[in-house]
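User: Hey, my collaborator sent me this sequence without any context and asked if I could get a structure. I don't really work with proteins. Can you help?
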Amino acid sequence: MKLLVTRHGETPWNRENWVLGRTDIPLNETGRAQALTLRERLEGRHIDAVYVSPLSRTMETASIALEGRDLALVPEPRIIEMNFGDYEKAGRRDPEYNAVKRCYFRRLPGGGESVMDLAARIYPYIRELARKHRGETVLLVTHGGIARVIRSYFTGMDNEEFSSFFLENCGLLEYDVPEED
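Assistant: No problem. I've predicted the 3D structure and written it out in C-alpha cell form, which is a compact way to encode the shape of the chain:
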C-alpha cells in the first residue's frame, strides 16, 4: 500500500502560532489557497481511498484538494489531532508547554493525551489500512501531531528528531507500507 499523508491548511490559530488540537477551527484564506496548491500536487495521482479527521479544517482541506474526483471522504476519528488538554491555545513557544510536550509517556493535564496514547491508536490503524488496502493508494488528511507519529512509525527517530519534526500546512508525505498477512 502507498500511504499519502497531508496536514490541513492554515487556520487563524496556526497563523498566531497557538497550540491547536481538538478545537474545531476552520481554514483561513491562506489555508484555502494551500489546499488548492495541494490539489495541483495531487493532480494525476491515482487515489483509491481517503480518510479524513472529523474536524472541519481537515474536511475543508480534503474537499478543496480533491474537488472533481469521485472519492468519498471517510471521517476517521483515530486520526483526529492530539488532545492537548490545558495547553490548547497556548503559545507554541511557551517554555512550560515545550517542556511538558517532551514528556512522551505523560498525559497532558486537563484530560489531554500523551504521545504514547497517539501511537497506541495510530500504529494499529496503519497496519489495519495495509490489510484493507493491499496494492492501493490511501490518502490521510490529518494534523501535524498525527503526521509526526506516522513518521515515527516508518522512520527511527530519537527524541530530538521527533519533537522537532514539522509538516507544514498541506505538506505531503509518502510512505510504502509493507503488506501484512
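In plain terms: The two ends are 13 Å apart (CA to CA). You can pass these C-alpha cells on to your collaborator as they are.
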